[in-house]
């Protein structure tokens, strides 16, 4: 008898991409989906304090509290891998026993921002996460940066991955060999609001799922090798009105950013040093945000500059009749140790603050940022990004608008969780820290 002939029963895993950026939860028999959709799966407060490395180092909840993970069936993934176990999971909201959104739920942090954006500004956000990772199923052959041979070497990983993404309900856009050794990137079509963050989680899991079945793994940690170019997660976004019209582009204005969208973008720029604590949330995130890595080090907005924190993407003239539809900004200060819900939520809440306070962007600097002295950058209103997680957490803690958007409970839990992560690797070398994150992500 073959192993695959043994009787099996379908299971569905329900989980959430939590504050540490890991998808965690529990499985139940698929036949119970309907009842589980209503009653959910048990969860407790301490679950949200599970660290990047696994252990709960600090726990304000103790052993107390009953919560539930309520699966959102719109996120259901059911992908077969011939000859292997399938991938069956659903993403979830964390809900109290009374059926209310739990204040610490990352998905509801994003939902709160989206709801306010819709009701206060009549806007929605269309976004796509572009994700880079290292695939361990290949060796490195020097010289094959972006090379066809690098593409060839991954064998069937890319094709199985793209098929899995499509069958999981997302629309694949591209798959490419990236700059660093063994590094690849995947992009998917943009989606409105919550769905984009759900898909970012799904795409990451599909990358892991495919690598696992091929006997390898993907490493999404922002820096795998100290000194090499890192793995970024870039968030491309644009704004739509409630009729679905693109409202971000105006060719006559600075950066091509419309009057309606400017306060939203200005909010992101203003809060960037603080929101970095949510989008680049690990110690290792700051090994990536260093000069000369194609990753940002300043909280700047710039046209077509891949060193900028917020890059105005180009409009391709061949499709210029769709300029408004094409126009988008790329937020580059994010990596895969961030929960996509916290990352997109941080952008939305910061943008909202810009709208509420009618913020304006600083005048575009007369000279390239690459030619400016630090004093010139500061005079032009361009802040430095934090240089470490500890510094970023300090910025978050003193940012009034982001504090309010998180609320005191989530803010305090988040700061404690990340402080405990710093404490857990205290005294370890940068190399050892990199290795710990590479093992965990
Ligand atoms: N790998 C770079 C990063 O860490 C980005 C390279 C690119 O522009 O795609 O963000
Ligand atoms: Mg890239």
What are its keywords?
441 residues; Creatine Kinase, Chain A, domain 2; globular; binds magnesium ion; 15 strands; binds glutamic acid; Ubiquitin-like (UB roll); six-stranded mixed beta sheet; 2 domains; 35% helix; alpha+beta; nine-stranded mixed beta sheet
Give your account of this protein's structure.
The model has no long low-confidence stretch (mean pLDDT 96). The protein has 441 residues and is of the alpha+beta class. The protein folds into 2 domains: 3-102, Ubiquitin-like (UB roll) (Roll); 109-440, 2-Layer Sandwich (Creatine Kinase, Chain A, domain 2). Helices cover 35% and strands 19% of the residues. The relative contact order is 0.14. The longest helix has 25 residues, at 400-424. Strands 7, 8, 9, 10, 11, 12, 13, 14 and 15 form a 9-stranded mixed sheet that branches. The chain starts with 10 loop residues before the first strand and ends with a helix. Bound molecules: glutamic acid and magnesium ion. The site of magnesium ion has 3 residues, from loops.
Ends: how far apart? 37 Å
> What is the helix fraction of residues, given as a range?
25-40%
User: Which range does the strand content fall in?
Assistant: 15-25%
The CATH topology of the largest domain? Creatine Kinase, Chain A, domain 2
**Tally of contiguous helical segments:** 13
Q: Which hetero ligands occur in this complex?
A: glutamic acid, magnesium ion
Unreliable stretches: none
What is the CATH architecture descriptor of the largest domain? 2-Layer Sandwich
How would you state the average pLDDT, rounded? 96
Count of DSSP strands: 15
What would you call the structural class? Answer: alpha+beta
């Amino acid at each position: 008898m073959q192993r695959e002939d043994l009787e099996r029963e379908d299971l569905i895993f329900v989980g959430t991409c939590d504050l540490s950026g890991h998808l965690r939860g529990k499985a139940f028999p698929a036949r119970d989906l309907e009842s589980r959709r209503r009653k959910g799966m048990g969860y407790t407060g301490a679950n949200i304090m599970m660290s990047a490395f696994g252990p709960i180092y600090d726990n304000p909840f103790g052993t107390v509290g009953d919560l539930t993970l309520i699966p959102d069936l719109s996120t259901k993934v059911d992908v077969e891998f011939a000859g292997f176990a399938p991938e069956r999971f659903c993403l979830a909201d964390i809900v109290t026993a009374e059926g209310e959104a739990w204040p610490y739920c990352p998905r509801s942090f994003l939902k709160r921002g989206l709801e306010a954006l819709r009701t206060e500004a009549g806007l929605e956000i269309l976004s796509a996460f572009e994700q880079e990772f290292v695939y361990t199923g290949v060796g490195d052959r020097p010289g094959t940066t972006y090379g066809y041979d690098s593409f060839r070497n991954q064998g069937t990983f890319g094709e199985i991955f793209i098929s899995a993404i499509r069958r999981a309900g997302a629309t694949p856009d591209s798959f490419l060999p990236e700059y660093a050794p063994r590094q690849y990137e995947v992009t998917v079509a943009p989606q409105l609001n919550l769905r984009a963050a759900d898909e970012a989680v799904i795409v990451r899991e599909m990358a892991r799922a495919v690598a696992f079945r091929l006997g390898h793994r993907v490493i999404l940690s922002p820096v795998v090798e100290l000194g090499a170019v890192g793995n970024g997660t870039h968030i491309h976004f644009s704004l739509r009105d409630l009729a679905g019209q693109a409202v971000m582009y105006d060719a006559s204005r600075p950066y091509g950013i419309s009057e309606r969208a400017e306060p939203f973008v200005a909010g992101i720029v203003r809060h960037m040093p603080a929101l970095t604590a949510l989008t680049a949330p690990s110690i290792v995130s700051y090994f990536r945000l260093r000069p000369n890595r194609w990753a940002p080090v300043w909280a700047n907005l710039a046209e077509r500059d891949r060193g900028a924190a917020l890059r105005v993407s180009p409009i391709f003239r061949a499709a210029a009749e769709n300029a408004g539809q094409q126009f988008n900004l790329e937020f580059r200060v994010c990596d895969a140790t961030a929960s996509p819900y916290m990352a997109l939520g941080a952008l939305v809440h910061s943008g909202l603050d810009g709208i509420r306070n009618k913020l304006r962007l600083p005048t575009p600097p007369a000279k390239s940022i690459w030619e400016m002295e630090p004093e010139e950058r500061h005079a032009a209103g361009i802040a430095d990004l934090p240089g470490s997680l500890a510094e970023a957490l300090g910025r978050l803690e003193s940012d009034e608008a982001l504090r309010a958007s998180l609320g005191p409970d989530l803010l305090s839990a988040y700061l404690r969780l990340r402080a405990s992560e710093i404490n857990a690797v205290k005294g370890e070398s940068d190399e050892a820290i990199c290795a710990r994150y590479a093992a965990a992500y």
